[in-house]
Specification:
The protein is α/β, with parallel strands linked by helices and 242 residues long. Helix content is 39%, strand content 26%. The protein has 9 helices and 10 strands.
Length: 242
């Protein structure tokens, strides 16, 4: 479903990604790991077309999205959900309106249908009785759940999550990771997440990528990554898992 070939990107004249090549099959969960500033978020933004490559291809369902007009790209994005690192909820909207926003913008559903769908996805992310609350009234974990509900409300075939456990304590990080796994399975999405959270990524991802020095240092299952003889990978895992 997702295919990246020979992706190169410079920002401010400095290389950020070099010769990034990988593919993600439908229904898989892939975790992109690496140090801060390694280019993980930049890679994620390529997958939704917010950033276009200097060289290479980014294909979603066989379509090179870098070649699409903004109008056609918008149609592709309607099948994609993006969970921002801090949730990126609208402060002036309550939970219900935050989650309903994509439905109001991109569909012609009636108010009753929108309400039914909003409650359906809030239930899926284990949130009850929060529809009238505003973001300032929510905990960090709850904001992540509302952000996830909004990301999937249109029926995302592709779910992109940027540092979903950032800022959460170990228990909440475990819970959010399990929730992403559960939601991905329930909606049958292809999921790509970036993370510093190696332990939880190893638990839920079917495939992992470690980026270092703008390039892929290792790629494969958790067992493949743990067996890597690449010095940076071994050092990274030792620091992250001890």
């Amino acid at each position: 479903m997702i295919k990246v070939e020979g992706l190169y990107k410079k920002l401010g004249g400095h290389p950020v990604l070099e010769d990034i090549t990988f593919s993600v099959d439908g229904g898989d969960i892939i975790a992109v790991l690496g140090l801060s500033g390694a280019g993980k978020t930049v890679l994620l933004k390529h997958l939704i077309g917010l950033v276009r490559p200097d060289q290479g291809r980014v294909e979603i369902d066989g379509v090179d999205i870098a070649l699409l007009s903004e109008e056609k790209l918008l149609k592709v994005r309607c099948n994609m959900g993006y969970l921002f690192q801090e949730g990126a909820l609208y402060d002036f909207m309550n939970v219900f309106d935050n989650v309903a926003f994509p439905l109001r913008e991109h569909t012609k559903r009636k108010p009753a249908e929108i309400a039914e769908r909003v409650r359906e996805v809030l239930k899926l992310v284990d949130l009850d009785d929060v529809e009238k609350k505003y973001p300032e009234e929510l905990s960090g974990g709850m904001k992540k759940r509302v952000g996830l509900a909004r990301a999937i409300v249109l029926g995302a075939k592709v779910l992109l999550c940027d540092e979903p456990t950032s800022g959460l304590d170990p228990i909440r990080s475990h819970d959010i990771s399990d929730l992403i796994l559960h939601v991905s399975q329930q909606i049958k999405s292809t999921t790509v997440l970036t993370s510093h959270d190696v332990g939880n990524s190893f638990r839920i991802a079917t495939k992992l990528i470690i980026i270092n020095d703008c390039k892929i240092a290792a790629m494969g299952t958790a067992e493949d990554i743990k067996a890597s003889n690449e010095p940076f990978v071994r050092e990274f895992l030792k620091a992250a898992l001890t």
